Amino acid sequence: MWVFLGSDVMFFGAFIATYLVYRGRSLNGPYPSEILDIPVTTVSTFVLLMSSLAMVLGLHYLREGEKNKATLWILGVVVLGSVFMAFQFVEFREFAHEGLTPRTNIFGTTFFILTGIHGAHVTIGVIWMAFLAYSSHRGKLRADNSLDLEIAGLYWHFVDIVWIVIFTVIYLISANDGPPPGAELLHG
Amino acid sequence: MANLWQKLTYHKGNGWWNLPHTASQEPNPPFEGPIGGAWLSNFWRTITHGGVSHAGPGFYWLVGLFLGVITLLEVWLFNVQGLGGLYIPTLLGLSTLKFVGVVAFFMHLRFDGRLFTYIFTASMSIGIGMFTLVLLLQQFGNQVR
User: Fold this and answer.
1) Which residue is closest to B65 within chain A, CA to CA?
2) Contact A185/A42 with Cβ under 8 angstroms?
3) Is the pLDDT of residue B131 over 50?
4) Over 90: is that where the pLDDT of A82 sits?
5) What is residue B5's predicted lDDT score, i.e. its pLDDT?
6) Does the complex come out with an ipTM higher than 0.90?
7) What pTM does this model have?
8) Chain A residues with beta carbon closer than 8 angstroms to that of B77
9) CA–CA distance from B133 to each of A19, B10, B42 (Å)?
10) Which of B19, B61, B98, B133 to mutate to test the interface with A (most CBs of A within 10 A)?
């Protein structure tokens, strides 16, 4: 799993670098300053961070042999991950409503590809966790095979740390980005 | 001085980044807390699960709280916008703190085998180096144009 995560670092790194290379180059709006909603994304970021906490607590209780607590916390990961996905779905729909799609401008393309791929990772993680919660409930996931949950947990925490970077780079650093100098000349 | 170095780096020295050689050989010395030297480990022992093998729920809650507080701090900095040129470096620093918190404690890298640390940090270093180079080349290209 660590080797896979190492390769995924490069994968996401490429998209983050691409976003930064094209940052502030959209010649038409909507621009980040007009569309990004920091308070809402802060809440979704907090939700994802807390899902990592739920994950590590689930693993802890599984190792301690406390099946019910473990199942509950793993279910917590599923719920919090789903809430995060719901936030992302609503955000994407809102952006589309305001005219930002992957085809609108270079910001839209790089933004949707990066956050969309991250969202796909979260979706896979939620499905994986749902299976593990079911296994834990049925007693098939136990302390002696807790490595299964630990490996899934590594994946989940990785998704979390990628979002930590995305939240900082796209939302907090780029949120004030407007049109590049000279863009107004193109539109008269 | 040598003692200080040992404290900071060596597993046996009970230091900050004292990784065990392998998870199976030395999962965690008994009663060693997740952070710090002996005095701090005594403190952690009272709030973590005995201070053995990884950490306990109390410590994980603390890390979670720490992550939440840093996120709030980041958003506060965003709203205040009073740091000028220090804004981006500060945000990157806070983001790195969160990143390290999750990787070291939630992903148990701090308690895991050294090989995993090498794999992850090597790929991180190569990735960050390569993409910094791409950004610098792109910036340099803009200046030439």
Assistant:
1) A50
2) no
3) yes
4) yes
5) 57
6) no
7) 0.79
8) 172
9) 15, 33, 45
10) B98
Name the packing angle between helices A2-21 and A106-138 (round to 10°).
Answer: 160
Cα angle at A35 between A30 and A36, to 5 degrees?
135
- Residue indicated by tokens 């279910």: A75
CB proximity list for A113: less than 8 A, separation 6 or greater: A15, A18, A102
Which of A 141-160 lie inside 8 A of B, CB atoms?
Answer: 150, 153-154, 157-158, 160
Overall average pLDDT of the A30-45 stretch:
87
Going by C-alpha positions, the residue among B60, B50, B4, B47 that lies closest to residue B29 is B50
Chain A stretch 117-146, residues whose beta carbon is closer than 8 A to a beta carbon of chain B: none
Contact (CB, 8 A) for B105 and B63? yes
Query: Residue B80's pLDDT is what?
Result: 81
A106-138 vs A147-166: helix crossing angle, rounded to 10: 160
For chain B, how many helices (H) and strands (E)?
A: 5, 0
E strand or H helix at A51 = helix A38-63
* pLDDT (average), residues A168-187: 76
- Residues B87 and B81 sit within 8 Å (Cβ to Cβ): yes
Tell me, yes or no, if B49 comes closer than 8 A to chain A by beta carbon. yes
Q: Which of A141, A122, A145 is nearest to A131 (CA)?
A: A141
| Chain B interface mutation, best of A21, A43, A161, highest count of B Cβ atoms under 10 Å | A161
Give the pair of three-digit tokens for residue B70. 């840093």
Query: Is the CB of B56 less than 8 angstroms away from the CB of A60?
Result: yes
Query: Using CA atoms, how far apart are residues B13 and A37, in angstroms rounded to an integer?
Result: 47
